[in-house]
Amino acid sequence: MEMGKEISELYKDEPVNKILTIETSGIPIAFAAAQFMKVPVVFAKKNKSENISDNLYHSKVTSFTRKNVYDAVVSKDFLNDKDNVLVIDDFLAKGNALNGLLDIIKQAGAKLCGCVVAIEKGFQGGGDELRASGIRVDSLAIIESMTENSLSFRK
Questions:
Q1: pTM over 0.85
Q2: How many angstroms from the chain centroid is the CA of residue 114?
Q3: How far, in whole angstroms, is CA 61 from its chain's centroid?
Q4: In this structure, what CATH number is given to the domain that contains residue 72?
Q5: Domain count, the chain
């Protein structure tokens, strides 16, 4: 809940009316932020299930962690061109999941307010690439380097 409170404070001046995340680990953080921001959470599923209509936005995402490709899907009933979206996720490595969600936002014609991640693996460059392209990315913690015996954070 403290992460949600911090995210709410970071985006208090933005016109966020929806939070978008991806299942499953992003949901608790997005939910916590939504409680403080008083907006709904929409989450992308990793592959279409039988109980979802075919009226979908979708984007191929390569998982750096799991070394597989999945189709992130969001029903068109939950995201549209009137939405101002904040993207929230748990980890950011290469930026593949965030790029998939950004693609879905673009398909919907929605406006991106920014992206927040709990932990960014700064040494993998995904966050820096997104920032260099003009996207606002806020990380609650950025790991600068990591070895078997040490961990250092970006200041």
A1: yes
A2: 9
A3: 13
A4: 3.40.50.2020
A5: 1
